[in-house]
Each structure stands twice: as structure tokens, then as C-alpha cells.
Amino acid sequence: MVTGSMVTGSMVTGSMFTGRTAPSPTGPMHPGNARTALLAWLHTRLHCGRHLLRIEDLDTGRIRPGMSDLIRTDLTWLGLDWDAEYSQSERLDHYAAALARLRTYPCTCTRREIQEAIQASAGAPHGSEPVYPGTCRHRTSTGSPAARRWVVPDTTICLSDGWSGETLCQHLPTEVGDFALQRGDGVYAYHLAAVVDDAEMGVTDIVRGADLLSSAPRQIALQGALGYRLPRYFHTPLMTDFGGVRLAKRSGAPSIQALRDSGLSPKRVLSDLARSLGWNVPQEVSAAELIPVYREVGSGK
Ligand code: GLU
Ligand code: ZN
What we know:
Blueprint: E1 6-9, E2 18-21, H1 31-46, E3 50-55, H2 67-78, E4 84-87, H3 92-100, E5 104-107, H4 111-120, E6 147-150, E7 156-160, E8 167-171, H5 172-176, E9 180-182, H6 190-200, E10 205-209, H7 216-225, E11 232-236, E12 241-242, E13 245-246, H8 256-261, H9 266-275, H10 290-297
Parallel strand pairs: 1-7, 2-3, 3-4, 10-11
Antiparallel strand pairs: 5-6, 6-9, 7-8, 12-13
């Protein structure tokens, strides 16, 4: 049963149009990431907005040296510029301040304990993700190090996606559960950092890959709890082919660096990125030349 009020991720009014590209420097950029970056850039530039580059480098175990520079090189080579740049690792005090404003509790459960608790509870796992059953909510003593989980509001969050036009609703307690805002090793969770940054940087429009669609309701919930304005969301389809070649899952796609090194021009790569969306464009096209194409066909509808 769905309880609580309906909250809808909808309009932002009265602020400067701001978009962003938020790469994680965990590996080289592939055509899929580049296409998402292209769409985010086109979306901002079509609306004459401000475009931000945010390096999402919080997960120290996964980031790889040199990748931030390589991503900047790749974006610049493709002609996708930005007006300001931030790294999340420089903004830890902002995430700490936001975390302190939310009702959280320490959790020392291991992955295995969570699985066992889910199996032991009456409700079968809901959806594809295991839902943390709130085991540590009422525990007083904890070992360390502990993650911090947010007591999610008993609400259903609905998001109307600007790209597909589809609506996604999630009931937080049963479909999401109390999710971690900080890991046991102190690393702030992506959801918290992204929400804080988007709000503090005045982001009005979030264009990103469809793999993050199911993250949007929990991010909207955090925006509500922190009193932030809700951005518009556009989740773009994941790439299935590039240069007319069908991409196998998790392999096959060359990096943008490899395409550059092979002698392809950036205009040719941009053309292949646009064509992979079904856009009818010449074999060589600049990023700026794609702005009117995006206006005509790019909204996804
Ligand atoms: N850093 C994420 C990624 O590279 C994007 C996060 C976001 O756009 O909210 O997939
Ligand atoms: Zn726990």
C-alpha cells in the first residue's frame, strides 16, 4: 500500500538555467559517457545557460590517477566546454553540514547480515534492489566504523522524466529503504553529494544516463528534506551502438582517447554519437552545429 503524500519532481522557477556534466574519474571516457556529456552540453547551450563540470571523485577506492585530466582533454577535444569546474573531494564540509541536518543513525551491518535480515522479514525483497530493513534504527550500541543511514520519510516520490515523458514512482520505506549517506570508511554517498552540489551550484537541469533514473526518487526525497529546489530531470537512453556497430554489454566500446589516437576527427565522433540517437546528421559535425538538431529532435519525445 502506498502511504504518505505525493511529491513530484517538477519545475524550477526563477533561477538561471544551469546544467552540468558530472563524470566519475574511475576510468577513461567511452562513447556512452561522451554522448551523455554531449546531450547535457546541448541542453544547456540550447537554453543559453551556464554549464558546470563536476568531478565526482569521492570514492577514493575507485578513482584512478590521471582520469580527471583525461576527461577534460576528451571533453575539450569534442568541443564541449564548461563555465566553471568543481571537484567533490574539495567540498567535504558541505556534505558534512547537510548530513548533520538529516535524521540518520549508525549502521554496522555487513552485506550478508542485511541479506539475512531481508530473508527473515515477512516481506519478500521488493523490486531488483535489496531494501535495507532498518535493522539498526533502534539499536543503541554500535561498533565502529559505522555507515550512516537516513530515516527515509514515509512517502511516495514520483518523477516525471523530461526525456521519456514517463513517470516513475517509488514508495521510500518499501522500495528504497533507509539508504546510506556516508559509508563506514567515511566516504559520503553519491546521492548526498550530488544533491548538495546540484542545489548549491544552482543546477536547474540534470541530463544524465538512464541507469540513474531509479536514483532520482531518493535524490528528490533528499532535496525535499533539505529544503532545496527541485531540478528538472532528463534521463537519456543508454547507448547500444556506436559507429553503426552494436556494442556488447560492458565491452567492445573503444575509449574516446583511443578514437582520437586512431586519427578520427572530433567531428566524425560527434556525428557517430548523434547518429547513435537516430539523428540524421552529416558525417562530420561540430558540437555547435548539433544545437539546432537537438532543438528539433533531441528532447526524446
Ligand atoms: N558521476 C555519475 C556518472 O558518471 C553521474 C552522476 C549524475 O549525473 O548525477 O555516471
Ligand atoms: Zn544496520
